[in-house]
Design a protein that fits this description.
Blueprint lengths: L1 H16 L5 H16 L3 H30 L6 H25 L2 H30 L1
Length: about 140
């Protein structure tokens, strides 16, 4: 009994230590990972950081708005959902164009391959999760 209580207290302590990262911290980590993977120079690091930070702020604002709408009981109807998805795709296109301006063609190709691999990994994990839930 004492071991179970001790383990529960220890688990709660770990959860308290894991505070979520701020937008700036997440951006900094992401830029550092990209720097290692793509060998970015200082100018590229600054531009990518600025771009990711702006995009993060936009996403955060949209997330807050979505949560507020959800709490208020406002669901999206077909046209609203279409408009939102269209805006999201436009933002992705803008992001890709901006990244192409910042990165060299080789770096951009490598980034595209990394994104594709990450997408495949997530898709594989989702399929595995769905199969586990069916049992």
């Amino acid at each position: 009994m004492m071991m179970v209580v001790g383990m529960a207290v220890n688990a709660q302590e770990k959860r308290e230590r894991l505070a979520p990262l701020t937008l700036e911290q997440r951006t900094e980590l992401r830029v550092k990972k990209m720097t290692l993977a793509l060998d970015l120079n200082e100018q590229q690091q600054k531009e990518v950081s600025k771009l990711l930070l702006e995009r993060g702020k936009e996403k955060k604002a949209l997330r807050k708005q979505h949560i507020a709408n959800k709490k208020a009981g406002k669901g999206m109807i077909g046209d609203e959902r279409l408009a939102m998805k269209s805006r999201m795709l436009d933002k992705k296109t803008e992001m890709n164009a901006a990244m192409q301006q910042i990165l060299t063609p080789e770096q951009f190709d490598k980034l595209s391959k990394m994104k594709k691999q990450r997408h495949e990994k997530i898709t594989k994990r989702e399929k595995k999760f769905k199969n586990q839930n069916r049992r």
